[in-house]
Design brief:
5-stranded mixed sheet, alpha+beta, Nucleotidyltransferase, domain 5, 10 helices
Length: 328
Amino acid sequence: MANSVLSHPRFHDEQAAYDWVEAIVWENGRFCPHCGVVDRSGPLKGKSNRIGLYKCYACRKPFTVKVGTIFEDSHAPMHLWMQAMYLLCSSKKGLSTNQLRRTLGVHMKTAWHMSHRIRLAMDDPATGPLGGEGMIVESDETYTVYKEGGPTWILHPEHGWQKRRSGSDRVPVVTLVERGGRARSRKVENVTAATLRSVVVGGADTKSRLMTDELRAYRRIGQQFAGHDAVNHGEDEWSRRLPDGTKAHTNTVEGFFSILKRGIYGCYFHVSEAHLHRYLAEFDFRYSNRAKLGVDDEERTDRLIRGIVGKRLTYRETVDAKKVKTPQ
């Protein structure tokens, strides 16, 4: 009988959890987060010392693998962090704060802050531009959450007060997707030519072939790429075979949007504009490290752990981003 992945000791034993994180973060040698010296430290094994505590022989300061990472100043046990990270990495459409709270047995605020720290670790802007020579990058925009202040209400003469369904009430998101590869999404203020140029040219290798819809702003942007093809959705054109056999379409990026919206509307229900960029990083990370690319849930979690270094997000910073009384 096969054992559950969650039966691994790192999800239940604190020492095993520390050992797992240390093996990934310090794979090139244990370094002091205070002075940066490598392999000049030793464990403190006194009865009063906590698990995973070391002392640097260069600067004489104590440290753990938590220092300088998303775990710093967290009172949650390391094995609970491992559970939370695995659950968020293995849930294709996300995991709500309430579900995480019930699963881990922690307070609502703890689960909320843990999930936002994990999303911060998922954000990796240093992976370089998408695409490259011989590759295709699709670009499209969508509207997800309401802007701060909520939707605009209008009085209908027959049906009373109704939400005005307009893109001006929602936050625009521009996403670039490599066909068969990674995704990168960005929250923007508007969908103008200047904004799109900044996102597309700044996020994709211009040696790529660009695929878009019929939006006029893409015409001049496409001139900076090795090739540009567009489909006219306004005339019900969704795919077109080009002379070289390549298919012109934006179905890949629209498939990404379907996952994103199912997660926001079906799992999280409410996402504020102030925190939207972290949720986008979460969906980008899972898409860019999906099973089709040979990355299973365990490897995805290991890759997430590699991204925890140098990232801090305090609870006050998270709450101050938008003054709310109830966690999202």
